[in-house]
Amino acid sequence: MNLGAQESVYQLPRHIKAPAICARINNRTRGVPYQFVFLFNSFKTHNHNLNKKKKRKKEKKRHKMSFSISANLSPLPSDREAIVDAIARCLCGLDTADRVLFQSAFTADAVFDLNGALLHGLDEITTSCFDNVSKLDTTHMTSNVRTTFSDDGRAATTTATGVAYHYRAGKGLAMENGGATERLVVGSLYSIDLVKVEEGEGEGEATLWKAKTWRLKSVWTQGDWAVMGALPGNRGTEEAK
């Protein structure tokens, strides 16, 4: 194509975070101008960097994929079973990073006592507990659940034993791959006051048992408390020691 004396200007898209790169193509130059080669290589480098960033993002997300089921079970469980499920909703929500499932285990005005550190209200419980623990590689297990109900059947007190394994994000399988990794294993006692909450209106409304006060006391540990980061009640802090 004869462009006459006019030169065409080609510039990389603005989203490329680098000094502006321009290539001028002179109509008198035969073959592929060196500017085109430079431009092509710049695009290749940019795309390669983008792909690397996307790959790293996928790898970060891959280790924590939520596959939890709904908070409402079918068929409906008995009250005693539903209380065990309230504990499971909290702990499975942490293990699978399922915020909705985790929050379904607490009333809006709940109090969470983590080794004496009090979290007031669902928002604080979520930001201080869920946001810190759910990003780790964890497994929480519960046993020895015992429950006593109020006379009207609308409230209950439950005690249970818990064992939880915590690894830094993405490091849960490091030992399997022959590496070494930090972890914290905690054995805890739970004492939980729960209430029966009706959700929805009319016939067939959903009923969930939710924790109004959850007290957690760690009784033994193995590993490094530093894994828990800024979690309130972290006994690895100087204050807790």
TrEMBL record:
Q: Which residues form the SnoaL-like domain?
A: 78-213
Which Pfam families does this UniProt record tie to the protein? SnoaL_4 (PF13577)
List the SUPFAM superfamilies hit by this protein, alphabetically.
NTF2-like
Q: Output this protein's name.
A: SnoaL-like domain-containing protein
Organism source for this protein?
Beauveria bassiana
